[in-house]
Amino acid sequence: MDLTKLLKGEVSMKKTLTVLVLVVLTIAFLGASGRAEKADGKTTLTFGFWGDTPEANMKMELAKAYMEKNPNVNIEFEYTDGGGYLTKMQTWFSSNTAPDVFGVASDVVGNFLENPTFEDLRSYIERDNLGDLWSWQTIDSMYTSQKGSVIAVPFISKTFVMLYNKDLFDAAGLAYPTDDWTVDEMVAAARVLTKGEGVNKTYGLRWGVRPTEFYRNLYGNPVYDTATNTINAANNAEFKAAVALFVDTIKEGLAPNETGGAISTGGFETGRFGMQLSATWDIAPLMQLSDSFAWDAVMLPINTQFNQRMLTTFRGNGWSINANSKHKELAWDFIKFMSAEEAGQRAAQDFGIPELIAYANSPGYLEDYGANNVVYDKTKFVKMVDYATNFNNMGVYAQINDVVNEQYDLVLAGKTTIDQMVREIQTQGEKLFADF
Amino acid sequence: MSRKLTRARKYKRNESRLFYSIISTWLIGFTVFTLFPMIFSLFSSFTSWDGMSNLNFIGLKNYISIFKTDRIFITSLKNTFYYVGLSVPLNMLISVGLAMLLTRRSVFNNIFRAIYYLPTICTGVASYIAWLYLFNKDFGFINILLNKVGIPPAAWLSSPDTALLSIVFMDMFICGTSMTIVLASLQDIPKAYYEVADLDGVNKLQRFFYITFPMISPVVFFNFLMTLIKSLQIFTQPFVMTEGGPANSTYVYGIHLYKSAFLYGKFGYASALAWILFLILIVISGLVFFSSRYWVFYREEIK
Of A110, A89, A107, A106, whose CA–CA distance to A98 is shortest? Predict the structure, then answer.
């Protein structure tokens, strides 16, 4: 179209606008289709994942290793930090733009089990006869829909243990904790280890931001039941004891108050904590600090009143395939590389317990302490799997978790009592389940 | 005569054609990326949409639930207004005060301007995390300073009584943009006004209220409106620093909206919340515009 004609009015306005709209839409289409199916003759897979820098690097290295092994494959990354991944996932689902392969976390995936974006992986597992490689208990409890579809293959799982600073224990003349230790012994040790004030403060314990997901079901009597959608706060002695443990240790100054939801400003790696409730993902940064101080892991302690070991939340990470992917077989092959082969599981071992059963139980995993050879008892994380409870933080459960958190904060601030707290949680929880 | 008229009409037609041609790209962008999402959001606010399934129409149920059963809605609204009520006036006072200080002749003026503007250009989340360290009860710089003058350490972000105040305090330092706009406006005031005022023997306070403020009032009005709208939409600071806690003391409207959509999976409900916020913004902006006739002075008025 000649601009001079346009300016002279020889082209109608309708025609002008139509042409302009077409130009803009064409540019938009070209931009949107920029993700070529084949780049340099290679097949392109899109790969969505989350993680902090070390974990994200591990996942990218895994993808690079797969590309090296399969030179005809190009993997494009769609990385999002952990905090934004849930939002990203929902955007993928609502706009039908999920990557070919993407990660899922057990604490939020419960709400998406029936989502048509997930390819049913059961037939893939059965066809390749891989069923015995992973725990079916994990798959059934976390990644299986009501219709029986398997929406993800497990990659790693994450449990909690208590890490302890051996140097601080030695300096205080305390014996190292053992797996049969009790909650009372833990608190007593924390009292001895807590010293100083202000910048010189050493805390005996660090709960971090974790009470939120722990007091919910610390001693085996959960404050709400996800199977029956019922709330069980009012007369729950175990729940009250769990809240009391966290509140009392913080109020006594044995542990810092980080439970307001605030991001942590430094943890066990600073050497300022005698003990820390720690997950598998806390290990990776500690592996870089080989010379700072000696430390080890111990199972969570036992509550003698309930004769119950403190339960750990169990978080599973798995891989899913987009049901609309054009390269499902290739996506499946990539997932197998990460979850069914030892090399993939070895790369992920600093971030969680490998889900490949044979590898998780082998000396190759249990005695591999990384490049810096930082030796710690890895079996503690594995043993805690037997004392694990699932954590769901989506939908109505997230709403109830928020009510529990709010009430817990009020107890911590001295604005309400534990008895008032449980009554309020009972009332609010019943309302939320009734509206659900 | 008629030929002249035809030529004029043709010129006008060509001009409007050119106008529409040029803005059509923006119009398409506006339609696709703003208007359509707004209409979709309005429609979904009348549905029980969970972000994945079909949009089931439920009439006004979301709006009724918000006002009748959602206790967090009131909490989030109160917290948001509390934040706005403190941070907007503070931001205005500080930006005007700093701008006035920076108009004084000093060899260090440019350095100070850069220093005061620095917090504004720092990436939000990174600076909020730095503030988390500053607010830390044990080794935070603020408590260390207070300790030096004998004031006991406070649990700034861990106490429901001080958490939101701490965020307001932090935001005081992010007023570089407002300050720069006021500074430009201050430098635009003719010096003759002050010279005449000096001859009349007016004091500094009178100079400010009778010359300076009326002359900068249009930009103060602009800053006020922009800061007000931004503050009503506050989200990132409390979300990053406290996630709305402790005890919902920093649980602002933006967090409620976000959690309702992405954590509770109630996208229709969140859309209704978004439209309520939009209406609140319109009403408050309207009131500010209405009030401006009493305190904003435009030079054109004395022509």
Answer: A89
Q: CB B247 to CB A393 under 8 A?
A: no
The answer to whether B210 and B202 have CB atoms below 8 angstroms apart is yes
Distance from the Cα of B16 to chain A's closest Cα (Å) equals 9
Residue A157 and residue A314 in contact, taking contact as beta carbons nearer than 8 Å: yes
pLDDT digits (tens, 9 = 90+) for B153-195: 888 998 999 999 999 999 998 888 899 999 999 999 999 999 9
Name the CA radius of gyration of chain B, rounded.
Answer: 25
Written in H, E and C, the secondary structure of B85-154 is HHHHHHHHHHHHHHHHHHHCCCCCHHHHHHHHHHHHHCCHHHHHHHHHHHHCCCCCHHHHHHHHCCCCCC
User: Does B133 contact chain A (CB < 8 Å)?
Assistant: yes
A153 forms bridges with which residues in the sheet? Answer: A319
Token pair of B14 as six digits: 């060509």
Closest CA to A233 of A216, A218, A247: A216
Q: Do B247 and A415 touch (CB under 8 A)?
A: yes
Neighbouring-strand partners of residue A317: A105, A156
Question: What's the ipTM?
Answer: 0.85
Given CB atoms, is B284 within the 8 Å cutoff of chain A? no
Q: What is the rounded CA–CA span in Å between residue A372 and residue A377?
A: 15
According to the model, what pLDDT value does residue A20 have?
56
Instruction: For A349-367, give one letter per residue: b (16+ CB within 10 A) or e.
Output: bbbbbbbbeebbeeeebee
Which pTM value belongs to this model? 0.86
pLDDT higher at A209 or A124: A124
**Tokens matching residue A400:** 């109830």
